[in-house]
Amino acid sequence: MIFPGDESDDTDTEDGTISSTYVAESLSVEMSPETEGLATSIIEATATITDQSILDLEPLYTVIDPDALETLFCNRVDGKRFGEVSFAYSGCAVTVTDGERVTVTRQPVDAAADD
User: Fold this and answer.
1) Which of 4, 20, 45, 70 could disulfide-pair with 24, CB 3.0 to 4.6 Å?
2) Which InterPro entries is this protein grouped with (predicted)?
């Protein structure tokens, strides 16, 4: 399994073996809507993929209204949630799907600078 923060490149060593490790570019988090808020999941996933403290990230409310996001995915009468919202946050593309999956993908430096 590849984890955020794992880094390396393919290199030949003196004994002829190749060492390889990877950098994770995307992180998808399944959440329990009853126990976790969307804002918390987004912030924690973004901190993980960017290898930053949650305190070093810009406040989420500067890019999206967390209360409106929660309202968008609130439980319906039948208990099901549907929809998808995507936005840029702290150099990443964030997608919330059905209020239960948060996917955070690092954006290339040039794309993040355009936000």
Assistant:
1) 4
2) HalOD1
Note whether 11 and 19 are within 8 A (CB): yes
Domain count, the chain: 1
Q: How many CB atoms lie within 10 A of CB 108?
A: 10
Give the model confidence (pLDDT) of 34-82 as tens digits.
Answer: 667 889 989 988 998 899 999 999 999 999 999 999 888 876 667 677 8
Per the structure, the complete domain to which residue 100 belongs is given by: 25-113
The answer to whether the pTM exceeds 0.85 is no
Please indicate, yes or no, if residue 6 is contained in any of the structural domains.
no
Domain contains 49: yes
In a domain, 2, yes or no: no
Cβ atoms within 10 Å, residue 104: 26
**Residue 11 within a domain:** no
CA 112 to CA 75: how far, in whole Å?
33
Cα 99 to Cα 101: distance, rounded to the nearest angstrom? 6
